[in-house]
């Protein structure tokens, strides 16, 4: 057995080997040690190898999914090794023969399909990176699939946007040729991706062999009917198909044909911007607090995944965007229809994932039940839309739902029971009345006593022997028993002897059997096995029928997801008071009463003050050329970062086809979105906070065009004041003169407001505040003008800094503002004033203070007249020396 294990393990050295032994998957040697630590299970020893004890641990087969989830989450890959031979066959080869085992599947982060291992609202993408060397440079392409749903897409990329394109899809696993992985020029990309990058042999990505591999996988003569693909795209497609064949062994997932995404069809959002805006996760990695969490009103798993996909890849075609907005507008206006629609959608299970599990022979009766329920929900949705004047998007979705196979749906209704078991091996999933022999076998299995009693009653009537009984024991099986004095009835004639076969003579009874009883006994004994075999056959037939309708089922499921997203966005618009944006091909960006969708909801939950809405207009001037730049100044905590982000999020929402949190909005399509908000370092790559800031700023200045929207906050703050001011100053000029894009630039360098007199498209705006009795009140309002103060000391006081620090800061600030330290900074640090103040407070008081104290203690206010009190006050004043 260990020889067999070592042989199989050597062929799968990069995976943990789940080696099937009876009801357990066992792991040995280093695999056992790794699994024991990761899973928190007991590590034992069994047998010896080369004189050393063999480490071993194991997990029950029935709970394997739970353990697989932990191993995959920890970044491991698992080879599942099963028995592939009947033990009886192994015995025929000899008493020492081992049942043949082999790997039936490689489980990796990008190829899991188990329901327990997948979040319903999250896609599970496997991505492949292809590369072909061109005349001047490398050409890159990305192909990605969700093996759990069958989605398959491909696009070209370039070295300068490769990381952003990968992170947009957010794959669980990225496969690539080993030479690419070790390319020094891409080291920074793979450092960011970490362990999701999985190098593979270069032969998997051979573009010369790609056409044949793709054609064989999809069983077509040539893949040309799928569209025209570049060589790099063919390399990526071939690589991902080869990896699927490698991991799924003999099974073939029902993948859709590869769909090409045109470069520029979606809004480009670089990696830093995607993180800063917290689209699907916060900076800490949580979904709570993200934009996706705030806008998600979907009721199906497919709808939730589609919403996330649209959010991470907003469109750039105004016509396509407005087609989506038309669907939301229709459902927002048709309140009752929309409510009925969402109720129908709630009953729609995850058909694509059920289909994938079935096609990979990992599904069970409940997956067939999911298809049945999904097609039933589709019929209800079509009924809800019946007679309505639908926009094109919803009309196309209804046509796809109508294309679901009605015969197959009816077949499932007839064949499947109402209550379905989880596993096929449990049986009981075929409806009574569907298969005559199955019903008979079930009756024998479940009602054997009643069947035997009926035969006994018939024999009593036939023979007239009232004491006749049909009994059972482990030696004879079923037999007929009569008393000895009735023996002549049972064997008194030739006809009786021929029918009643003598089995046993007892002292007071005789036992017989009949051909009919023996046959019934055999049927009863085999009824359970036969019933299960019949059900297996029915399941296999339904499985084959399911796979034959895979394309139609997948298209119907996609239509349900489209409808769910439109209905969810309509519900969001109604509940949050969002407006329909005007999206066009202009360079306009005009928001009235804009709000931050996440912050607004958080304030409502906290029962705090309502969100303060603000306008933003970055539209071109009278010449209609090039958008404006807003230079935003104002205090810390005044709301600058919120204002910056909310306008970026409004652009994303508008272009994904959603209503937006504003009173009105006009968005000229943005092709690239850049956001540099917040501070972070990258110490693992040797980058300080300021270096990260400069790298991200450089990317923006090098890539932003006139259709870009740029959001910049506090450029230059990570270095000396004059250095930072110089960099920020030059960056604004470059954005204005070279990039000529729409932008909001927030800064604390108030000197930069003078640029508005020089740059025609630069406008000064500020976050308004009011001072009240020494404190500052943040109004969170954006207005024209420039701030002359940042109110940092007041914010420090609100944060709880010691009062001595706050007072000293105020004093230093006054001197700095009055210019007293010009060229004489040492005057501020003479005798360490912060600590000298504290020392003076703690020094012994002079003698005059003791006299004054004694005089105050001697006073008896309760016994003094008003005149005596006044005289005492003058005496006390005389004890104090004037300063």
From TrEMBL:
GO terms for cellular component: cytosol. Residues 708-724 form the DNA mismatch repair proteins mutS family domain. PANTHER family: DNA MISMATCH REPAIR PROTEIN MSH1, MITOCHONDRIAL, DNA MISMATCH REPAIR PROTEIN MUTS FAMILY MEMBER. Belongs to the DNA mismatch repair MutS family. Keywords: ATP-binding, DNA damage, DNA repair, DNA-binding, Nucleotide-binding. This protein is involved in the repair of mismatches in DNA. It is possible that it carries out the mismatch recognition step. This protein has a weak ATPase activity. PROSITE patterns: DNA_MISMATCH_REPAIR_2. GO terms for molecular function: ATP binding; ATP-dependent DNA damage sensor activity; damaged DNA binding; mismatched DNA binding. ATP binds at residues 634-641. It comes from Neoaquamicrobium microcysteis. Signal peptide: none annotated. SUPFAM superfamilies: DNA repair protein MutS, domain I, DNA repair protein MutS, domain II, DNA repair protein MutS, domain III, P-loop containing nucleoside triphosphate hydrolases. GO terms for biological process: mismatch repair. InterPro entries: DNA_mismatch_repair_MutS (IPR005748), DNA_mismatch_repair_MutS-lik_N (IPR007695), DNA_mismatch_repair_MutS/MSH (IPR017261), DNA_mismatch_repair_MutS_C (IPR000432), DNA_mismatch_repair_MutS_clamp (IPR007861), DNA_mismatch_repair_MutS_core (IPR007696), DNA_mismatch_repair_MutS_N (IPR016151), DNA_mismatch_repair_MutS_sf (IPR036187). It holds the Pfam family MutS_V. Gene3D superfamilies: 1.10.1420.10, 6.10.140.430, DNA repair protein MutS, domain I, MutS, connector domain, P-loop containing nucleotide triphosphate hydrolases. This is DNA mismatch repair protein MutS. CDD domains: ABC_MutS1.
